Fold these 2 entries.
Entry 1:
Amino acid sequence: MNFPKEFMWGGATAANQYEGGWDEDGRGPTLFDVMTGGDTNHPRLITFINADGTPGTMREGEALPKDARYAVLDGYYYPNHVASDGYHRYKEDIALFAEMGFRIYRMSISWSRLFPKGIEDEPNPAGIAFYRNVFQELRKHNIEPLVTIWHFDTPLFLEEHCGGWLNRQTVEHYVRFAKTCFTEFKDLVKYWITFNEINNTIQFMKLAGRPAEDSDFQKAYQILHHQFVASAKAVKIGHAINPENQIGCMINGSTNLPFTCDAKDVIYCNQLWQKNIYYCADVQCRGEYPPFAERLWNEHNVEVKMEDGDLEILKDGTVDLFTFSYYHTNCVTTHKTGEKDKVPGNYQVGVRSPYVTYSAWGWSLDPDGLQYFMELMYDRERKPMMIVENGMGAIDEFRDGTVHDEYHIDYHSTHIQAMGRAMANGVKCIAYTTWGCVDVIAASTGQMSKRYGQIYVDVDENGNGTYDRYRKDSFDWYKHVIETNGSEL
Ligand code: BG6
């Protein structure tokens, strides 16, 4: 493989899954702080107190009962409260990243560490100081920070009292937050992402535990419109504050493939691409809703409320980079299939493909799907790409101070090769960051045992452990990959 010499190798984490320190130094809570752990068979639960004082739980996506309040309850374990303890150990982690030779590190800023409720006029100085220290530490090691402004973690106050992203006012709260980040960290950060996996809102509705109704689609498309406007405004402000800023969208590259060559399957598959991927990517990269948007809205009687000037805002705020995550492919069909053909894992939809293997969480392992995604999306959006999440969640066996994780090595090696093939075919890609380079709490299940990292964190599913860091076999392997600029995989 011949990667450009300036290619940026690195790793990625997100504040709510990595930092912990959930109530320290003035940070406000987010929805993740009232969420228990789960697994593939048991969804994470959100805890609350009813108006009459009785405790309650619900699944993500369900509505809070009338007059109930989100609450941390006795008797439950909340994995994001301490997460990987990055809030206290980031220096040690950055030193390990440097040892691996990272040139870039993707992380996110916790909105509620800067604006505890989301509505304040001025940021929390302790939050600003924390992130300045992190960025300075990265710079000390010549690691370029790549910063996600929103990684699913809206302040809980905005969710609970203001209607979250359904409320147009959240756009302005977000813009104030984004502007603060661009201003405060102007001298330290130039790569940014406005919204993590913005397309999850529409593509994962199926996973809410019940069939989606028209009213769910109405909400989803409205939320997306607000986020598109917020992102476009942020991009414009980011460029005005520092013309050197490079700002990306972030699309979950969950790749759909048709199960058969029946044209009906191919059309169905294409329509899933339109809904799940192109819809968001086009608005953020081209600055306008795609031609099939009307059809998508009409299918569910959706009326997206837009304000005068919104379409111009979208036009003026297109991103510089096509930034995306890639984990797996979905095999989809219009044909009737039996229960046994369904894919059991979380986040994965469609039927079982005979051409791939599946992880313990039912996620398909399909490097060719990455090549396909990159070639298709580069043709479509023509923006320099960054793969900012890629990896495989697995159960690690920690023994004698290390983990022999040849499965992680194999996953990354085959996916880096696929990225190289796409690049050899003309795709411009400038960075690759492994997801959860240091083990983090899984977003979907809240598990620590679903590990992606090159660095092992000594803590179990219930928060027992020292939180000490250990190098896995994949640590040495990735170090060598970076040393040889991807020529020895
Ligand atoms: C992406 C998210 O959906 O996938 C990450 O951006 C997440 O936050 C990652 O951690 C992997 O998913 P999970 O559920 O295995 O953590």
Entry 2:
Amino acid sequence: MPADLVGPADLVGTGLELSICADVATVTLARPERRNAMTPGMWRGLARIGNALAGAVRVVVVRGAGPSFCAGIDLRMFSAEGVPGEEANPDPADAAFDESVAGFQAGYTWLRDPSLVSIAAVQGHAIGAGFQLALACDLRVIADDAKFCMKEPALGLVPDLTGTKPLVEIVGLPRAIEMCLTARTVDAAEAAQLRLAELVVPRADLDAAVSDLVAALLSTDAGAARATKALLVQAQGNTLEQQAAAERAAQAVLLAARRGR
Ligand code: ACO
């Protein structure tokens, strides 16, 4: 059971909570008093959860406790004192810099795995690393008070938690340049217009809207859902001929499995 692989003891100090109910995992950023500001420990915890859940659940919901989804990196990371109990920001002069940041990115990349569908439930602010976490999910259901901001360039940083590719794919290159290089805030109405949200609902209805979507996602055949997501994910990089061939191959696997039942 994945819950045994990542139990509450494994997540102590990460600011994360994990609950699993049948085919659905809910990952909660649980530092509301800091607006769920993120640390290396949280990113590594997310990666551990991803490893444990691979192939074990069909849907993952990522949510934030309290008024904000996530206020981005814990800004104390940039102070001389750092965050008590946390590893320091990796030093670019260190040979392990690349490996460290890749480890943080692993906390995000698993959310795109074809074996699952990930949903970000966003209320309040999703800033920097938090915006990138919402972008790492397949779908975004947002409250009408949601506010997105790619703050990194304003702080002398680039967004390096895998957010640049989905942002460009969703809003297009010119809008992504404009949003990131001004570090401006995008409200819920504009987010819907830019296709950054699949659904915008009143704040009080966010949990119910996410539950309804989860139920709808679970209503289709599990094998077909996984194979279809795999096809959709590769569609953009394929020619029509390659995609048509991939569809035939996927259908053959599904039908063979059905005959074998
Ligand atoms: N890092 C550390 N602490 C934070 C962060 C953060 N990113 N965001 C909020 N907090 C803390 C505040 O310091 C405050 O602590 P205190 O109660 O001890 O004073 C507490 O969380 C609540 O924050 P408020 O600002 O009072 O909450 P409010 O709801 O009014 O505003 C908001 C929320 C807009 C998110 C604001 O806190 C903010 O702008 N935070 C910083 C956002 C930021 O610049 N993040 C970095 C992005 S770049 C990146 O992620 C790589």
